[in-house]
Protein backbone atom coordinates (compact mmCIF):
# COMPACT_ATOMS: atom_id res chain seq x y z
CA UNK A 1 0.00 0.00 0.00
CA UNK A 2 1.15 3.52 -0.68
CA UNK A 3 0.42 6.85 0.88
CA UNK A 4 1.95 10.02 -0.54
CA UNK A 5 4.24 7.82 -2.67
CA UNK A 6 5.62 6.11 0.44
CA UNK A 7 5.20 2.46 1.38
CA UNK A 8 3.31 1.77 4.58
CA UNK A 9 3.94 -1.64 6.20
CA UNK A 10 1.06 -2.92 8.31
CA UNK A 11 0.15 -6.42 9.44
CA UNK A 12 -3.35 -6.97 8.10
CA UNK A 13 -5.77 -9.00 10.24
CA UNK A 14 -9.09 -8.52 8.38
CA UNK A 15 -10.38 -7.11 5.09
CA UNK A 16 -13.89 -6.17 4.00
CA UNK A 17 -15.07 -5.02 0.56
CA UNK A 18 -18.71 -3.87 0.66
CA UNK A 19 -21.06 -4.92 -2.14
CA UNK A 20 -20.41 -2.88 -5.32
CA UNK A 21 -17.94 -0.61 -3.50
CA UNK A 22 -14.54 0.66 -4.65
CA UNK A 23 -13.29 1.11 -1.10
CA UNK A 24 -11.63 -1.75 0.77
CA UNK A 25 -11.66 -1.60 4.59
CA UNK A 26 -8.51 -3.05 6.16
CA UNK A 27 -8.16 -3.89 9.84
CA UNK A 28 -4.68 -4.16 11.31
CA UNK A 29 -2.87 -5.76 14.22
CA UNK A 30 -2.62 -2.34 15.86
CA UNK A 31 -6.43 -2.10 16.03
CA UNK A 32 -6.79 0.65 13.45
CA UNK A 33 -8.87 0.57 10.26
CA UNK A 34 -7.50 1.91 6.97
CA UNK A 35 -9.35 2.43 3.70
CA UNK A 36 -7.87 1.60 0.29
CA UNK A 37 -9.17 2.51 -3.17
CA UNK A 38 -9.19 -0.80 -5.05
CA UNK A 39 -8.56 0.72 -8.50
CA UNK A 40 -5.48 2.76 -7.58
CA UNK A 41 -4.64 0.70 -4.45
CA UNK A 42 -3.74 3.90 -2.65
CA UNK A 43 -4.47 4.49 1.01
CA UNK A 44 -7.15 7.01 1.83
CA UNK A 45 -6.40 9.63 4.43
CA UNK A 46 -9.38 8.35 6.44
CA UNK A 47 -8.18 6.23 9.39
CA UNK A 48 -10.36 4.89 12.20
CA UNK A 49 -8.10 4.75 15.25
CA UNK A 50 -8.88 2.17 17.90
CA UNK A 51 -8.85 4.69 20.75
CA UNK A 52 -11.57 6.70 18.99
CA UNK A 53 -13.74 3.66 18.30
CA UNK A 54 -13.86 2.18 21.83
CA UNK A 55 -15.12 3.66 25.08
CA UNK A 56 -13.10 6.64 26.23
CA UNK A 57 -12.92 5.12 29.71
CA UNK A 58 -11.20 1.98 28.33
CA UNK A 59 -7.46 2.52 28.32
CA UNK A 60 -6.44 -1.06 27.53
CA UNK A 61 -5.72 -1.86 23.90
CA UNK A 62 -8.59 -4.01 22.50
CA UNK A 63 -6.28 -6.11 20.33
CA UNK A 64 -6.24 -6.59 16.57
CA UNK A 65 -9.26 -5.97 14.37
CA UNK A 66 -10.94 -9.36 13.80
CA UNK A 67 -14.06 -8.22 11.95
CA UNK A 68 -15.33 -5.47 9.65
CA UNK A 69 -18.74 -5.28 7.98
CA UNK A 70 -21.17 -2.62 6.86
CA UNK A 71 -24.78 -2.58 8.03
CA UNK A 72 -26.91 -4.15 5.25
CA UNK A 73 -29.53 -1.43 5.69
CA UNK A 74 -27.06 1.48 5.97
CA UNK A 75 -23.65 1.18 4.26
CA UNK A 76 -22.44 4.29 6.10
CA UNK A 77 -22.36 2.33 9.37
CA UNK A 78 -19.31 0.07 9.80
CA UNK A 79 -19.24 -2.60 12.50
CA UNK A 80 -15.73 -3.06 13.92
CA UNK A 81 -14.89 -6.09 16.03
CA UNK A 82 -11.78 -6.29 18.22
CA UNK A 83 -10.13 -9.45 19.49
CA UNK A 84 -11.00 -8.88 23.15
CA UNK A 85 -14.76 -8.76 22.42
CA UNK A 86 -15.28 -5.01 22.16
CA UNK A 87 -17.37 -3.90 19.17
CA UNK A 88 -18.08 -0.46 17.75
CA UNK A 89 -20.66 0.65 15.18
CA UNK A 90 -18.84 3.48 13.42
CA UNK A 91 -20.60 6.29 11.54
CA UNK A 92 -18.39 6.82 8.48
CA UNK A 93 -19.93 10.21 7.66
CA UNK A 94 -19.87 11.83 11.10
CA UNK A 95 -16.72 9.96 12.21
CA UNK A 96 -18.11 8.88 15.57
CA UNK A 97 -19.14 5.60 17.19
CA UNK A 98 -22.95 5.35 17.37
CA UNK A 99 -22.95 2.29 19.62
CA UNK A 100 -20.39 0.24 21.53
CA UNK A 101 -20.83 -3.35 22.68
CA UNK A 102 -18.85 -5.45 25.16
CA UNK A 103 -19.16 -9.20 24.58
CA UNK A 104 -17.07 -10.22 27.63
CA UNK A 105 -15.64 -13.00 25.46
CA UNK A 106 -13.09 -12.90 22.62
CA UNK A 107 -14.82 -12.57 19.24
CA UNK A 108 -13.94 -14.74 16.24
CA UNK A 109 -16.64 -13.87 13.70
CA UNK A 110 -19.72 -11.65 13.21
CA UNK A 111 -22.64 -11.83 10.77
CA UNK A 112 -25.53 -9.43 10.16
CA UNK A 113 -29.19 -10.26 9.71
CA UNK A 114 -30.21 -8.82 6.35
CA UNK A 115 -32.57 -6.24 7.94
CA UNK A 116 -29.60 -4.60 9.65
CA UNK A 117 -31.29 -4.58 13.06
CA UNK A 118 -29.40 -7.52 14.58
CA UNK A 119 -26.08 -9.31 14.30
CA UNK A 120 -24.64 -12.54 15.70
CA UNK A 121 -21.16 -12.99 17.20
CA UNK A 122 -19.20 -16.22 17.68
CA UNK A 123 -16.96 -16.63 20.70
CA UNK A 124 -14.04 -18.56 22.15
CA UNK A 125 -16.21 -20.44 24.66
CA UNK A 126 -18.38 -22.02 21.95
CA UNK A 127 -21.31 -19.62 22.37
CA UNK A 128 -23.17 -17.38 19.94
CA UNK A 129 -24.56 -14.03 21.06
CA UNK A 130 -27.28 -12.17 19.17
CA UNK A 131 -27.32 -8.39 19.60
CA UNK A 132 -29.97 -5.80 18.82
CA UNK A 133 -28.12 -2.97 17.11
CA UNK A 134 -29.81 -0.27 19.20
CA UNK A 135 -29.44 -2.11 22.53
CA UNK A 136 -25.71 -2.24 23.28
CA UNK A 137 -25.96 -2.92 27.01
CA UNK A 138 -26.59 -6.67 26.79
CA UNK A 139 -27.07 -9.32 24.10
CA UNK A 140 -30.65 -10.16 23.16
CA UNK A 141 -29.86 -13.88 23.27
CA UNK A 142 -26.98 -16.19 24.22
CA UNK A 143 -26.89 -19.58 22.49
CA UNK A 144 -24.75 -22.58 23.45
CA UNK A 145 -25.55 -24.87 20.51
CA UNK A 146 -23.56 -27.93 21.58
CA UNK A 147 -23.12 -27.51 25.34
CA UNK A 148 -25.23 -29.75 27.56
CA UNK A 149 -27.74 -27.85 29.67
CA UNK A 150 -26.18 -27.88 33.15
CA UNK A 151 -27.93 -28.10 36.48
CA UNK A 152 -28.51 -24.83 38.26
CA UNK A 153 -25.27 -23.43 39.62
CA UNK A 154 -23.11 -25.71 37.45
CA UNK A 155 -20.88 -24.30 34.74
CA UNK A 156 -21.79 -25.17 31.12
CA UNK A 157 -19.86 -27.91 29.38
CA UNK A 158 -16.65 -26.45 27.87
CA UNK A 159 -16.69 -26.22 24.08
CA UNK A 160 -14.19 -25.22 21.43
CA UNK A 161 -14.29 -21.75 19.83
CA UNK A 162 -16.85 -21.05 17.12
CA UNK A 163 -14.39 -19.87 14.47
CA UNK A 164 -16.86 -18.60 11.88
CA UNK A 165 -20.59 -17.89 11.74
CA UNK A 166 -22.96 -16.87 8.93
CA UNK A 167 -26.61 -15.79 9.19
CA UNK A 168 -28.64 -16.29 6.00
CA UNK A 169 -32.38 -15.77 5.52
CA UNK A 170 -35.03 -17.14 3.18
CA UNK A 171 -38.26 -15.46 2.06
CA UNK A 172 -40.39 -18.28 3.45
CA UNK A 173 -39.16 -20.19 6.47
CA UNK A 174 -36.70 -19.81 9.31
CA UNK A 175 -33.25 -18.33 8.67
CA UNK A 176 -30.08 -20.41 8.64
CA UNK A 177 -27.25 -19.97 11.13
CA UNK A 178 -24.15 -21.87 10.01
CA UNK A 179 -20.92 -22.14 11.95
CA UNK A 180 -17.70 -24.11 12.31
CA UNK A 181 -16.32 -25.27 15.65
CA UNK A 182 -18.18 -25.01 18.94
CA UNK A 183 -18.26 -28.74 19.72
CA UNK A 184 -17.65 -30.17 23.20
CA UNK A 185 -13.91 -30.38 23.75
CA UNK A 186 -13.76 -34.19 23.97
CA UNK A 187 -15.52 -34.53 20.58
CA UNK A 188 -13.87 -31.68 18.72
CA UNK A 189 -10.53 -33.40 18.15
CA UNK A 190 -12.29 -36.42 16.66
CA UNK A 191 -15.03 -34.76 14.61
CA UNK A 192 -14.35 -31.77 12.33
CA UNK A 193 -17.79 -30.43 11.43
CA UNK A 194 -20.08 -27.70 10.16
CA UNK A 195 -23.27 -27.03 12.13
CA UNK A 196 -26.48 -25.86 10.45
CA UNK A 197 -29.24 -24.37 12.63
CA UNK A 198 -32.67 -23.60 11.18
CA UNK A 199 -35.58 -22.96 13.50
CA UNK A 200 -35.57 -25.64 16.20
CA UNK A 201 -33.44 -28.04 14.13
CA UNK A 202 -29.68 -28.35 14.62
CA UNK A 203 -27.74 -30.54 12.19
CA UNK A 204 -24.06 -31.41 12.57
CA UNK A 205 -22.33 -32.31 9.29
CA UNK A 206 -19.22 -34.33 10.07
CA UNK A 207 -16.23 -33.80 7.78
CA UNK A 208 -13.39 -36.18 7.00
CA UNK A 209 -10.70 -33.51 7.46
CA UNK A 210 -10.28 -30.33 9.55
CA UNK A 211 -12.29 -27.35 8.32
CA UNK A 212 -10.23 -24.45 6.96
CA UNK A 213 -13.10 -22.15 5.90
CA UNK A 214 -16.63 -22.18 4.53
CA UNK A 215 -18.80 -19.93 2.35
CA UNK A 216 -22.56 -19.91 1.81
CA UNK A 217 -23.78 -19.67 -1.80
CA UNK A 218 -26.93 -17.54 -2.17
CA UNK A 219 -29.40 -16.73 -4.94
CA UNK A 220 -29.61 -13.05 -3.99
CA UNK A 221 -26.43 -10.93 -3.85
CA UNK A 222 -28.13 -7.83 -2.39
CA UNK A 223 -27.24 -7.60 1.31
CA UNK A 224 -30.48 -5.84 2.37
CA UNK A 225 -32.77 -8.62 1.04
CA UNK A 226 -33.20 -12.27 2.10
CA UNK A 227 -30.15 -14.07 0.75
CA UNK A 228 -31.90 -17.35 -0.21
CA UNK A 229 -28.99 -19.74 0.52
CA UNK A 230 -28.87 -22.92 -1.53
CA UNK A 231 -25.44 -24.44 -0.79
CA UNK A 232 -22.43 -24.14 1.48
CA UNK A 233 -18.88 -24.62 0.20
CA UNK A 234 -16.56 -26.12 2.82
CA UNK A 235 -12.80 -25.98 2.31
CA UNK A 236 -11.08 -28.80 4.18
CA UNK A 237 -7.37 -29.40 4.62
CA UNK A 238 -7.45 -32.15 1.97
CA UNK A 239 -10.76 -31.72 0.18
CA UNK A 240 -13.51 -29.40 -1.05
CA UNK A 241 -17.09 -30.26 -0.08
CA UNK A 242 -20.29 -28.56 -1.27
CA UNK A 243 -23.46 -29.21 0.75
CA UNK A 244 -26.98 -28.88 -0.72
CA UNK A 245 -29.00 -26.72 1.70
CA UNK A 246 -32.21 -26.99 -0.34
CA UNK A 247 -32.60 -30.78 -0.09
CA UNK A 248 -33.68 -32.88 2.87
CA UNK A 249 -30.81 -34.23 4.92
CA UNK A 250 -28.31 -31.76 3.41
CA UNK A 251 -26.62 -34.17 0.95
CA UNK A 252 -23.30 -33.29 -0.67
CA UNK A 253 -22.94 -32.45 -4.35
CA UNK A 254 -20.89 -34.90 -6.37
CA UNK A 255 -17.52 -33.22 -6.91
CA UNK A 256 -16.47 -33.31 -10.60
CA UNK A 257 -12.84 -32.59 -9.71
CA UNK A 258 -10.42 -35.22 -8.34
CA UNK A 259 -9.74 -34.48 -4.68
CA UNK A 260 -8.02 -37.77 -4.02
CA UNK A 261 -4.57 -36.88 -2.68
CA UNK A 262 -5.61 -37.40 0.92
CA UNK A 263 -2.54 -39.55 1.59
CA UNK A 264 1.11 -38.85 0.76
CA UNK A 265 2.27 -40.11 -2.63
CA UNK A 266 5.07 -42.67 -2.21
CA UNK A 267 5.74 -43.62 -5.84
CA UNK A 268 4.70 -42.66 -9.36
CA UNK A 269 4.94 -44.24 -12.80
CA UNK A 270 4.13 -42.84 -16.27
CA UNK A 271 3.03 -44.95 -19.26
CA UNK A 272 2.63 -43.70 -22.85
CA UNK A 273 0.85 -45.25 -25.86
CA UNK A 274 -1.41 -47.41 -23.70
CA UNK A 275 -4.07 -49.51 -25.46
CA UNK A 276 -7.30 -47.51 -25.72
CA UNK A 277 -9.22 -50.54 -24.42
CA UNK A 278 -7.23 -50.33 -21.18
CA UNK A 279 -8.26 -46.71 -20.63
CA UNK A 280 -11.89 -47.69 -21.23
CA UNK A 281 -11.66 -50.47 -18.64
CA UNK A 282 -10.18 -48.09 -16.07
CA UNK A 283 -13.10 -45.70 -16.57
CA UNK A 284 -15.58 -48.57 -16.33
CA UNK A 285 -14.09 -49.80 -13.05
CA UNK A 286 -14.07 -46.29 -11.61
CA UNK A 287 -17.67 -45.67 -12.69
CA UNK A 288 -18.93 -48.75 -10.84
CA UNK A 289 -17.40 -47.45 -7.61
CA UNK A 290 -18.87 -43.97 -8.13
CA UNK A 291 -22.33 -45.35 -8.85
CA UNK A 292 -22.38 -47.00 -5.43
CA UNK A 293 -21.51 -43.67 -3.81
CA UNK A 294 -23.99 -41.59 -5.84
CA UNK A 295 -26.95 -42.76 -3.77
CA UNK A 296 -25.87 -40.37 -1.00
CA UNK A 297 -25.23 -37.40 -3.31
CA UNK A 298 -27.56 -34.52 -4.12
CA UNK A 299 -29.54 -34.99 -7.33
CA UNK A 300 -28.64 -31.46 -8.43
CA UNK A 301 -25.77 -30.41 -10.66
CA UNK A 302 -22.49 -29.09 -9.26
CA UNK A 303 -23.31 -25.45 -8.37
CA UNK A 304 -19.90 -23.85 -9.02
CA UNK A 305 -19.38 -22.58 -12.56
CA UNK A 306 -16.12 -21.75 -14.31
CA UNK A 307 -13.02 -23.59 -15.49
CA UNK A 308 -12.82 -25.69 -18.64
CA UNK A 309 -10.50 -28.23 -20.17
CA UNK A 310 -7.89 -26.74 -22.49
CA UNK A 311 -8.67 -26.84 -26.22
CA UNK A 312 -5.47 -28.73 -27.02
CA UNK A 313 -5.50 -32.35 -25.98
CA UNK A 314 -2.99 -35.11 -26.61
CA UNK A 315 -3.78 -37.75 -29.22
CA UNK A 316 -1.72 -40.28 -27.26
CA UNK A 317 -3.24 -42.50 -24.59
CA UNK A 318 -1.23 -41.88 -21.43
CA UNK A 319 -1.65 -43.15 -17.89
CA UNK A 320 -0.06 -42.08 -14.60
CA UNK A 321 -0.16 -44.53 -11.69
CA UNK A 322 0.45 -43.27 -8.15
CA UNK A 323 1.02 -45.28 -5.00
CA UNK A 324 0.12 -43.87 -1.58
CA UNK A 325 1.10 -44.28 2.04
CA UNK A 326 -2.23 -45.89 2.93
CA UNK A 327 -1.60 -48.73 0.46
CA UNK A 328 -3.96 -47.43 -2.23
CA UNK A 329 -3.12 -47.17 -5.94
CA UNK A 330 -4.70 -44.57 -8.21
CA UNK A 331 -4.89 -44.51 -12.01
CA UNK A 332 -4.92 -41.14 -13.80
CA UNK A 333 -5.86 -40.43 -17.40
CA UNK A 334 -3.07 -38.11 -18.61
CA UNK A 335 -4.32 -37.97 -22.20
CA UNK A 336 -6.20 -34.69 -21.72
From TrEMBL:
This entry's Gene Ontology molecular function terms read: GTPase activator activity; myosin II binding; syntaxin binding
| TM stretches of this protein | none
Q: Kindly state a single biological-process term from the GO annotations of this entry.
A: Golgi to plasma membrane transport
Alphabetically ordered keywords of this record: Exocytosis, Repeat, WD repeat
Q: Which InterPro entries does this one have?
A: Lethal2_giant, LLGL2, WD40/YVTN_repeat-like_dom_sf, WD40_repeat_CS, WD40_repeat_dom_sf, WD40_rpt
Show me the WD repeat boundaries: 107-141, 314-336
Pfam families tied to this protein: LLGL, WD40
Q: Name one GO cellular component term.
A: plasma membrane
Q: Which residues form the Lethal giant larvae homologue domain?
A: 156-251
Record carries keyword DNA-binding: no
Q: Where would one find coiled-coil regions in this protein?
A: none
**Does Glycoprotein appear among the keywords?**
no
Family, according to the entry, reads as follows: Belongs to the WD repeat L(2)GL family.
The molecule here is called: Putative syntaxin-binding protein 5-like
Its ancestry begins with:
Eukaryota, Metazoa, Echinodermata, Eleutherozoa, Echinozoa
